């Protein structure tokens, strides 16, 4: 059985809430956190169980099965790799029912030597992400009893690649030094659309990958915050707001960065969608305990008592919870990775006799993105772009 619509809604809702807490350039993966929270909720008791359930958006009693279905579904997606890891001290006895909810090959042992254990977990991280991330996000101590971690990696190639150009933009922070722009033209107009959301108008561009992993670029009005834009993107996936697609857009400036116009050309041409965006490579680290209410970890980090009687008879509290994330969007495709861990303690005069319609979409100032699975609409990675990649220096040797 595949992942349920309720679980997709829950994961995407966590994405939207996390986006609401974002301010600067970032990348994050709620899909990397959610299964871990679910397994913790399954073994939690008291107030910790209730808080984790609220963060999950599902009753704690359903969390274990939902997590297993989510992990199995993600593991079957082309271009996506998902791994779960559990390490415990030899002296920590796990509840058999909780341990049985995890695959048998995910359980490793902590020796109690932070340096040795750190190297082992870093090696697992690098292996599971194909080197995109090389370090486990949490630091181990002699008192670390348990580590529960996930590694998510997605890769896709565009069905229609972009051309690399030098970005032309009036947005000053990006115009002060040459930025690597991407441009392409297509006759498929419905890849772009505009939605009227409570926070303002949002332009959505769907960039399709060759394995059903896509990236949706989201440009809001200039005064909209990252959380409003990304939250609107999640709402568009859920069909909460209507999107007016490219073929139905009127002429003029119809949305953020979006213009529809009649243009003259030398020969009959079909309507076109001209897209300009930027290449970006974002790395981010997140301390989930700084957002403990968002993730249902308020009570769970109280070290004065244990909160996970369903995991072990030994009293456990969350001592650290972090995620390292990277996302790279370039002319050929997209790749992203997230490792999450919880520790317990585009001369002459032409003959322009023809007319066609041209839609121009320019993502030339800060914008958001949602990387998702096309069929389930599960958001795998999200982020906000504030610092595009620079233009590479010209190779004068090659030019000579």
Structure notes:
The chain has 400 residues and is of the alpha+beta class. It has two domains: 5-156 and 281-344, Antithrombin, Chain I, domain 2 (2-Layer Sandwich), CATH 3.30.497.10; 158-279 and 350-387, Roll (Alpha-1-antitrypsin, domain 1), CATH 2.30.39.10. Helix content is 24%, strand content 35%.
Q: Which class do the helix and strand fractions yield?
A: alpha+beta
Q: Please provide the count of β strands.
A: 19
**What share of residues is helical?**
10-25%
> So, CATH architecture of the largest domain?
2-Layer Sandwich
Gap between N and C termini, in Å? 60 Å
Q: Which residues form runs of ≥5 with pLDDT under 50?
A: 346-350
Gyration radius, rounded: 23 Å
The 3D shape can be described as elongated
Strand order of the largest sheet: 1-19-18-9-8-7-10
* Major beta-sheet overview: 7 strands, antiparallel
Number of domains: 2
Overall mean confidence score, pLDDT = 91
CATH superfamily of the largest domain: Antithrombin, subunit I, domain 2
Total count of helical runs of at least 4 residues:
9
Query: How much strand content do the residues show?
Result: 25-35%
- CATH topology of the largest domain, which one? Antithrombin, Chain I, domain 2
- CATH class type of the largest domain: Alpha Beta
**Helix/strand order, N-terminal first:** HEHHHEHEHEEHEEEEHEEEEEEEEEEH
